[in-house]
Amino acid sequence: MKRFLLISLLFAFCGNVHAQEALPTLDSGAFVNVITCGPGNDFYTTFGHSAIRICDTALGIDVVYNYGTFDFNTNHFYLKFAQGRLDYCLSRENYNGFIFEYGYEGRFVTEQTLKLTQQEKQNLFVLLETNYLPEYRYYLYDMFRDNCATRIRDIINSALGHRVLFEEQTPNNAKSYRQLLYEHTGNTLQWWQLGIDLVVGSRCDRPCTNFGYTFAPMELMRQLDTTCIKGTNEPLAMPAHHTLLETRTQTPRSVSPTLTFWALFVIILSLTVISWKKQWKLKWLDVILFVTTFLIAIAIIFLWFFSDHYCTKANFNLLWASPLFIYFAIKLRKSNRWVIVAQLALFAIVGVIALCGVQQFNAAVLPIILTLFIRLINLQYQKKINNNNEQ
Fold first, then answer.
1. Boundaries of CATH 3.90.1720 in the chain?
2. What is the Cβ-side half-sphere exposure of residue 249, based on CA atoms within 13 angstroms?
């Protein structure tokens, strides 16, 4: 990101002469639009998309610059994505082809025309074409700090030069990344919310600056509508206008994971109580619960310590989804009492962290913790009964 900004500033302030020798000069009738696309039905399209359009009918130019391009055929694609080491790139495509694709998917498209001077339009054109060069077009994607929307914010700032648009500041009553994620996933993707909440940590709960807000294309669109160039009272962009209306079938509301896990808790609690009377061992149940929890712990550890994602660090879900559960799965009723007590103490620490606001946990985590608590208590109870029978 630093290299990109350095290149941008270099061309914006010092390098325009050489760049313009290789590129045509835009006509006075050329315009620059920021394109915002609505969400799609795939999860990776949930938050929408941003791109930049440059149109100059005199030169026959009408292209869209898109920072959200990636290659599914990349070697070890999923591993690189999990590690935060997947290359995204800037692509350039014909405007009509871009619009056709989003129309086919039934997603809405809006455009905002930027109120740029002729020199600023040329600056932006040079910057985008330079960034499209093979040696500069690739970057390491970060969902919150470096994506298709934040790149547009930064390159517009660079093109403006001394007329700064975006200055980083923390708004009053600023929301966190997690709160913004919730707003954009709503009631239709609650299981995805749970998945996200399990893998992102306490960094996701810090108040966002206005820069942080613009990781979401819809927030970038809102800021362009209201943010004024420094020293003026006029927004940089004209009001957004619809190019395409949404025609896709809305994703149906999902079954609540919180209700699902509360129901599971009631079932397991009932089975546990009955097992005390019927002398059922239910080893299979404990193995499934403990191994599943251990696998969640492995995922959290990997994303915390072995990935470059910003928001997967300091993830205190690791306290309740503890690596200790592989020990319980292996030992079961032979588990050491003090190891069980240690895990119960970690459950209590999770409660303290939640109450102090250090990290927000998904609502479904509470019935999961209570389910694990019941089964750990059951291990100790069954161990006590076995010891009494042996005596």
1. 2-169+209-244
2. 2
Residues 48 and 36: beta-carbon distance below 8 Å: yes
Q: Give the C-alpha separation, 299 to 365, whole Å.
A: 16
pLDDT in the model for residue 241: 93
> Which CATH architecture does the domain made up of 2-169+209-244 adopt?
Alpha-Beta Complex (3.90)
Cβ-Cβ contacts under 8 Å for 71 (sequence gap 6 or more): 77, 87
Question: 359 with 205: CB under 8 angstroms?
Answer: yes
Q: What is the pTM of this model?
A: 0.85
Please give the pLDDT value at position 4: 43
Q: Which stretches of the chain drop beneath a pLDDT of 50?
A: 1-20
Q: Give residue 82's pLDDT.
A: 79
pLDDT at 253: 77
Output the pLDDT for position 10. 45
The amino acid present at 369, given as its one-letter code, is: I
* Cα torsion 97, 99, 104, 105: sign: positive
Pick from 40, 363, 359, 365: which is nearest to 184 by CA?
A: 40
